[in-house]
Amino acid sequence: MNTPAVQGTEARTARITGEDGLVSLRQEWLHPAIVDPEMDSMRLLSETAMRFPEALSFSSGAPYDGNHDLAALSFHLERYVKHLREKGLPEERITRTLFQYGPVNGFIQDEVALMLKRDEDIDAPPGSIMITHGYQEAALVALRGLFSSPDEVLLTVSPAYVGIRGAARMLDIPVRGILESGPDGLDPETVRESARALRAEGKRAVALYLVPDFSNPSGTVIPLEARRRLLQVAAEEELILLEDNPYGLFARDGETLPTLKSLDTTRNVIYLGSFAKSAFPGARLGYLVADQPVTDAEGTTRLLAQELSKAKAMYSVGSSSLSQAVIGGILVENDYTLRPATRELAAVYLERLDTVLDALAGHFPAERHEEHGVSWNEPRGGFFLTLRVPFTADLAKMERSARDYGVSWAPMSMFHIEGGGYREIRLGFSNLAPEAIREGIARLARFIADTPRD
Ligand SMILES: Cc1ncc(COP(=O)(O)O)c(C=O)c1O
């Protein structure tokens, strides 16, 4: 590698011409988010885990492989085409829908609106829905649209899914974390205090990101009363709530709570959806619901989802028509409700969660928690739980665990926004069979027993 050894203003020229006449760059010339090692933590984690393929992996939240069936892809694609024929669309329109550039906000909003009504009791007019390239693009589009000045800050639950901090960082949006207060996740009063503290600093909290149902990484669920209070705080503090809900379908029977969006009577919520866990992540399909009216200088009003279309057009032009057709076919085939369709899958995840909890209790009986220095939360669903350990759990320890003990996991500190979580690990169990979970927890118990406290 020829890296030009030039500094300062000279460096600008060297961007195009290195000493040998070939283009050669320095990392520090790139956007700070690309230089920041924190932004690379998930890649490092999965690369480390992948270097030890024999290790049982609790390090990811990948959905259950057994739910993926090649034949279902073409079946659901065909099902969507049949649906369009049944609606009376001429063949050339159907062909155009699948092959041509399409509307930026997508073409399955009607089907998604029906699903939202049936599964979540959310009343979302199709015009308030944008079909996106996964949750990740929905987050990028919403953030790009909502934030317009450097004093505007994104509040986020902490610890948080890396996708939100990364999206904000890529857009130069400052982020402030609000620590979860325990098994009930975010405390509404702390949200109010954080919004006010920012105001006292001359800044403005524009939006708050949170995952009310089975948060990643902590597995917490916000209780119903706190959801209502959060909505009240959002209305009073003029905050948009960015509600991310990939795991809500995986609750135990009778334990489903209403989403913030379904309780939202003041239009404070933008709902960020994903088909990664309810269908499959390879579709890279998600959506956002933004039903807030936006009025322009001429007095014309359009829904926020329509305004945000301008951002989506520049990120991705439109979402894949093939993925939309396959997901559309899944929705049509299941009568626009994924709840019953995912009950068996939910049972798989719940059995895995119960197996982890059982295995942990077997290796670390309650009366010896103090002696072992180990404790954990007991989520009621989702893909993750948090294990507290008596030593600093960083990537180097994870590597030793994977190499020498055959079990990998994720350091919780990677998910904290303001530092913290140094002696905690995230256990993701969604893609490990029960026997593998039992063996994995046995290996983890040996690793914990052998690791000196610090
Ligand atoms: C909290 C959270 N949001 C969203 C997603 C899914 O994002 P995407 O649709 O971009 O795959 C995940 C997946 O891990 C997640 O944990």
UniProtKB/TrEMBL annotation:
Q: Which cofactor does it need?
A: pyridoxal 5'-phosphate
* Origin species: Streptomyces physcomitrii
Ranges of residues in domain Aminotransferase class I/classII large: 78-444
State any single GO MF term: transaminase activity
- Protein name per its UniProtKB record: PLP-dependent aminotransferase family protein
Protein keywords: Aminotransferase, Pyridoxal phosphate, Transferase
Per its UniProt record, what InterPro entries does this chain match? Aminotransferase_I/II_large, Class-I_PLP-dep_aminotransf, PyrdxlP-dep_Trfase, PyrdxlP-dep_Trfase_major, PyrdxlP-dep_Trfase_small
